[in-house]
Design goal:
By secondary structure, this protein is α+β, with helices and mostly antiparallel strands. It has helices at 2-21, 91-107, 135-145, and strands spanning 27-29, 46-56, 69-71, 75-86, 110-112, 123-131, 152-161, 167-170. Helix 1 packs across helix 2 (91-107). The model has no long low-confidence stretch (mean pLDDT 79).
Length: 184
């Protein structure tokens, strides 16, 4: 997860530098709150990328039935990633940066080895979709974080890990299914 988040944040920073014409990284991988539950904002003019939840999708564990090997099925994780903008001095610039984040994920809703060269080898792909929240859900998030409400968007990243391709045990092929059975 850390590699995937870092690769996407680096790619997003590269694109934002080109679009906005800035020299420094604007997007940072960061918690939304410090351990003492105070806001984690270290500086201004930042877009914070924060992992706020992880879910594992339940998949058919018998999918390899009929094959002569026993291996882990691929792991499918849903990462819930929140992008929030903290630019108190210039709200217009905050909205400009926020619009660039939205545009980035609209233009690139799929991350793979083909379109992202630094993509981790153990992850096959990530698909990105935005999550719409009710006002009460938004309020719960910001109250739990202990921060003021900031412009944000929540994405669900569906991550397919290929680590399940590791073979644990190979079974010998059965050549004669009746061998060793007593006649009746």
């Amino acid at each position: 997860m850390d590699q995937v988040l870092s690769v996407v944040v680096n790619d997003l920073n590269h694109i934002l530098k080109q679009r906005i014409g800035i020299a420094e990284d604007v997007v940072e991988l960061s918690a939304l709150a410090n351990p003492n539950n105070s806001g984690a904002t270290q500086g201004t003019n930042k877009i914070r990328c924060s992992l706020i939840n992880v879910e594992q999708e339940q998949i058919n564990l018998n999918a390899s039935a009929g094959r002569p090997v026993k291996n882990n099925p691929p792991t499918i994780l849903n990462l819930f990633v929140l992008f929030s903008v903290y630019q108190p001095a210039d709200y217009r610039e905050a909205l400009k940066a926020f619009s660039s984040v939205l545009g980035y994920f609209q233009a690139k809703p799929l991350f793979s080895h083909q379109n992202t060269p630094a993509f981790p080898a153990n992850v096959d792909k990530i698909t990105v979709e935005s999550i719409n929240l009710e006002r009460s859900e938004m309020s719960h998030i910001w109250t739990a974080i202990g921060s003021e409400h900031l412009p944000f968007i929540l994405y669900k990243w569906r991550m397919l890990s290929t680590a399940g391709d590791l073979i644990f045990k190979e079974f010998p092929e059965i050549k004669d299914p009746t061998a060793g059975l007593a006649p009746q």
